[in-house]
Design goal:
There is one protein chain. This protein has one domain (2-167). It has helices at 2-18, 26-40, 49-76, 81-98, 103-125, 130-167. Helix 1 (2-18) packs antiparallel against helix 6 (130-167), helix 2 packs antiparallel against helix 3 and helix 2 (26-40) runs parallel beside helix 6. The longest helix is centred in the last third of the chain and has 38 residues, at 130-167. The two termini are 13 Å apart. It is mostly helical and 168 residues long.
């Protein structure tokens, strides 16, 4: 019976992993459900607390990577701190606004465009010239894309970690 639970949980975790593209907290939901299963089925012992702790650390790392890559991209391209901060805010707003337009691609494109717009506005507001602001915005958009890729990679590691622990 444990293999039925492990299979169902792994399939659910794959769906939650895909939800990361929609800016949903897929990694956190995987961990929450795994902890709930561990609590709900105390005699089964599907997950060790070490595994759950490592998963929490990985999920936190994924969040940090996603948000800092956009800001770092803006800063690396010569943007201001204000532009980097607004790149983070713009990325979140863009993802939310882009999701209804095209579910998967719209979320990622919206996040990248939002990071670009946020960085551009922040740098112009900080007194940067237009050319430099556009460069920083482009850096923010590329950084946000790679931040999402990094968060997806971390989410994939969490899926594998939980699946291995569930089946062993």
């Amino acid at each position: 019976m444990i293999y039925v639970y492990a299979t169902a949980l792994t399939l659910l975790n794959l769906v939650l992993w895909a939800s990361i593209l929609f800016n949903l907290p897929g990694a956190w939901l995987m961990i929450l459900i795994a902890a709930f299963v561990e609590w709900w089925l105390p005699g089964v012992n599907m997950f060790s607390w070490t595994t759950l702790t490592v998963a929490v650390v990985l999920a936190a790392l994924g969040e940090v990577l996603e948000f800092t890559f956009g800001a770092a991209g803006a800063r690396q391209a010569g943007g201001s701190r204000r532009g980097a901060l607004l790149a983070i805010v713009g990325g979140v707003i863009g993802a939310v606004m882009g999701t209804p337009l095209a579910p998967v691609a719209g979320t990622l494109i919206g996040a990248c465009l939002g990071a670009f717009a946020g960085s551009l506005v922040g740098d112009l507001w900080a007194g940067q010239p237009l050319g430099r602001s556009v460069e920083a915005g482009s850096g923010a958009a590329v950084g946000r894309f790679w931040g999402t890729v990094a968060k997806m990679a971390v989410g994939g590691v969490i899926v594998l970690l939980l699946a291995i622990d569930a089946f062993t």
